[in-house]
């Protein structure tokens, strides 16, 4: 049995401290759950076999199984279960993988997957004291991004900052600052052009009470020359800046999956088939390069090669790691992130996998391509990829 992607929606992605910062993450997740059901009015909500959502943080208002909370807040019957998965930046792509496997096994016909992250609202945390009435001060730690409360047994090279890890990747592959800035500028230009052309009109839904129609971080006039003026963020003589790396964001995404026989129940034709999946792990500090092998494995399981791939959605955590991955694949770089990427659109960790998967399905349909790859790098040395087949391609 095959699993199919029937629909995909997301909120606009807001800047850190921006338009969506006043919205709880469980409400963001409920927004895309509600929107998905409204877009398929023939689907009885009680026919949803499971809700699987990704969430990279889970330390604040997204605690206690945000998938279940979103389903309840969206008004689904209490009989519809929900589960939250965490593979950091790949969490919502992992959710889609879990949902597709559940359908392929015959355990479900309809699974609503997705992910959410409010990096603005991620709380500060502190460890409990080892004994009562400690005399020393205790530091509160931000849970917005990266390592926190690190186990001292972890090797230091594993727990370095995400930016420093990618400066090391830059040294390994000699990817210049100029290439990174050019890649980042292209991301903004393509995202702006896609919005202007109406490409995202059917993929993005508004958030109640928030005046935000488009992704908040896109800078239409971005140029390599303007980005070249920004200072390095992680090393005094480094190449990574706030302009050629993804920002901190808030947002949610949802992907509706089902079996072929569920089409009548959902009331729409499938957009794409889940054709292959791949996961890869390597040394934690090399996480940016992990999508290379993850995508190769997904393609092998789909039974196709790179020469058949017509579109790639690669989450742009950093321009340098994106370029390293694209350089490693035997593809035309022009088919990568044709409607812009995370450097411009944003990267709310738990929501990004659903965004790239939904965008990939739409790009395949728009360009009449049959095969596409969605891939994402994941902190602590992992990568994830999914291959989609557009069976309607001529």
Could you describe the 3D structure shown?
The protein has 394 residues and is of the alpha+beta class. It has a domain of 261 residues: 3-Layer(aba) Sandwich (Peroxisomal Thiolase, Chain A, domain 1). The chain is built from 11 helices and 12 strands. The strands form 2 sheets. Strands 1, 2, 3, 4, 5, 8, 9, 10, 11 and 12 form a 10-stranded mixed β-sheet that branches. Helix 3 crosses helix 11. The chain is globular, with a radius of gyration of 20 Å. The two termini are 23 Å apart. The mean pLDDT is 97.
Low-confidence stretches: none
In CATH, the topology of the domain at 3-120 and 247-389 is named Peroxisomal Thiolase, Chain A, domain 1
Strand content: 15-25%
Q: State the name of the first-level CATH class of the domain at 3-120 and 247-389.
A: Alpha Beta
Question: What structural class do you assign from the helix and strand content?
Answer: alpha+beta
- Give helix % range: 25-40%
Q: What's the main sheet like?
A: 10 strands, mixed
Treating each run of at least 4 consecutive H or I residues as one helix, how many helices? 11
Globally, the shape reads globular
Q: How confident is the prediction overall: mean pLDDT? A: 97
- Order of helical and strand elements: EEHEHEHEEEHHHEHEHEHHHEE
